[in-house]
Amino acid sequence: MASGHTITIEQSQQHVRVTHGDLVLAESDRPLVLRETGSPVRYYIPAEDVRLDLLTPSGTHTVCPFKGTASYWSLPDAPDLVWAYPDPKADVARIKDHLCFYEVEVDAAG
Predict the structure, then answer these.
(1) What is the CATH number of the domain that holds 26?
(2) Which pLDDT tens digit goes with each residue over 40-61?
């Protein structure tokens, strides 16, 4: 990692739920919590806990020097709402097969 830049990944038992309007897009009690220098806390949710049937792959790809190349998925009214790293760099290999959303509700009691 670059000097001063850190990424930590922790397994959590917190309950996270992702909604968009009336749609529940994901719900999980086993997210990974990723903390990265200069970024908000992100919850990476196992693919099995995500309603992939509601999402459409987009053509968008971005490259993070620390995590690798991200692929994105969209809803009809919310482009590139979800992303994942199908082939993450070794330091963050745990996020493979997990998806991340911009807006996530977290049950702090969990």
Answers:
(1) 2.170.150.40
(2) 999 999 999 999 999 999 999 9
Question: What six digits make up the tokens of 84?
Answer: 């994942």
Alpha carbons 71 and 61: distance in angstroms, whole number: 5
Residue 60, C-beta contacts closer than 8 angstroms, at least 6 positions apart:
71, 72, 79, 80
Give phi and psi for 6, each to the nearest 5: -130, 150
- Residue type at 85? Y
> What does pTM read for this prediction?
0.91
Contact 75, 69 (CB under 8 A): no
Q: In sequence order, what E strands does 1-110 have? A: 7-11, 15-20, 23-28, 32-36, 42-46, 56-64, 68-75, 78-84, 98-101, 105-107
Whether 1 maps to a domain, the answer reads no
